[in-house]
Amino acid sequence: MTLSDRINSITEPQTIGMARKARELKAKGIDVISLSLGEPDFNTPEPIKLAAKKAIDENFSHYTHVSGYLELRQAIAKKFKRDNNLDFTADQIVVSTGAKQSIANIMLCILNPGDEVLVPAPYWVTYLELVKLAGGIPVVIPSTVENNFKTTPLQIKNAITSKTKAIIFSSPCNPTGSVYTKEELKSLADAIIPHKEMYVISDEIYEHINFVGKHESIAQFPELKERTIVVNGASKGFAMTGWRVGYIGASKDIAQACDKIQGQFTSATCSIGQKAMHAAVDMEVSAIHPMRDAFKKRRDIVYNLLKEIPRVKTNLPDGAFYFFPDVSAYFTPHLNPPQRGGLGTLSSPPLGEIREGVRNSTDLCMYLLDKAHVALVAGDAFGDDNHIRISYAASEEKLIEAMKRIKNALSELK
Ligand code: PLP
């Protein structure tokens, strides 16, 4: 049986591959600490669960409008005004099966074969694959830990060609935790505004996990508002990863196009999940501040422990729940291949045991899994092979133990 070129051109998310490997070790009775997955270790807040139970009891069990039932889209429009001062009407909102499907819809709606999408690195793993799946070409823009992983307007200007259709980025960022300030977003907007054919896909899924204050959206700049597609959802801020609900706010044209695609793929997302999302967007945001504050405390713990590990370079993340430290000083110099980070189109070597030394971030993650029994994700998957991603969505106790194990295991590498 031959599969399509399309499916052969994309890779399985490494985050999922590493989690599978960790589960295999756990099944053998090994005490693995998993810091590889991108989801809060908190439970969905009670009012959201109650709304979903009520929806089941009241038989809210039929197909809804493809873009989500009207009152939900109206509530999301209110949320955009309340939290982001953005004006959207209900017909500019499309609710989907997670922000992931929202991004898939967008790519399928805006890209023709050969269209380029700027993807500042480090990026969320899925961006590249969805661009490729839609026939587009990802153009990766590298950054450094020294610059807090921020893309500059000059880099954007230099990367734009006549084929550039869009730019996609997240702030707060997965995997770096970096958060763009209003001034930084304005300077990026100024670089994009003259290119009238270009969309901005602003992934704001970590909006509520922000340690520096108010969330800023690039959609706030009027010249860009019509061309910005804001992606958001409840997975991270409301600990609702399994409910699979996300949404976009966009121009009517884009919303209609996404509705058309989604009408063929899923009809709409689950009606009960929509009711749960409705309760989430109606909730006082302060209700989830204890979760955000817990993440901030853990960030500080991990930061202090990371700083104690020689030769590891890190920034202090301002949001989300990840560190993305540079660990390349632990690679075995004569085995270190040419830098692969930033290319983004090469696939990682298969997960395997370290025999000769550590060549790259995948080898280092495998070494740490085998030796320290800590599951992490190789930076290669996020577009920078000198780094690893540490998710601190785990208890303080586990984080302290994991960092101790990592430090000890690294100290054995020459
Ligand atoms: N965007 C980013 C940056 C993410 O990290 C994730 C999940 O890891 C998503 C989108 C997907 O969110 P959802 O669970 O709503 O599909």
Short account of what is shown:
The protein has 414 residues and is α/β, with parallel strands linked by helices.
Task: List its traits.
414 residues, binds pyridoxal-5'-phosphate, 12 strands, 12% strand, Aspartate Aminotransferase, domain 2, Aspartate Aminotransferase, domain 1, alpha/beta, globular, 3-stranded antiparallel sheet, 7-stranded mixed sheet
Task: Describe this structure as you would to a colleague.
By secondary structure, the protein is α/β, with parallel strands linked by helices. The chain has two domains: 5-43 and 288-411, Aspartate Aminotransferase, domain 1 (Alpha-Beta Complex); 47-284, Type I PLP-dependent aspartate aminotransferase-like (Major domain) (Aspartate Aminotransferase, domain 2, 3-Layer(aba) Sandwich), CATH 3.40.640. It is 39% helix and 12% strand. The chain has a seven-stranded mixed sheet, sandwiched between helices. Strands 9-12-11 form a three-stranded antiparallel sheet. The radius of gyration is 21 Å and the shape is globular. Residues 338-353 have low confidence and may be disordered. Pyridoxal-5'-phosphate binds at residues 38, 98-100, 124, 170, 174, 203, 205, 233, 235, 241, 246.
CATH topology (level 3) name of the largest domain: Aspartate Aminotransferase, domain 2
The number of helices is: 14
**Ligand names:** pyridoxal-5'-phosphate
Mean pLDDT: 92
Enumerate the spans where pLDDT stays under 50 for 5 or more consecutive residues.
338-353
CATH superfamily of the largest domain: Type I PLP-dependent aspartate aminotransferase-like (Major domain)
Query: How many structural domains?
Result: 2
Give the radius of gyration.
Answer: 21 Å
CATH class categorisation of the largest domain: Alpha Beta
Beta strand count = 12
Q: Share of helix among residues?
A: 25-40%
Strand order of the largest sheet: 2-8-7-6-5-3-4
What pattern of helices and strands is seen along the backbone? HHEHHEHEHEHEHEHEEHHHEHEEEH
- How widely separated are the two ends? 46 Å
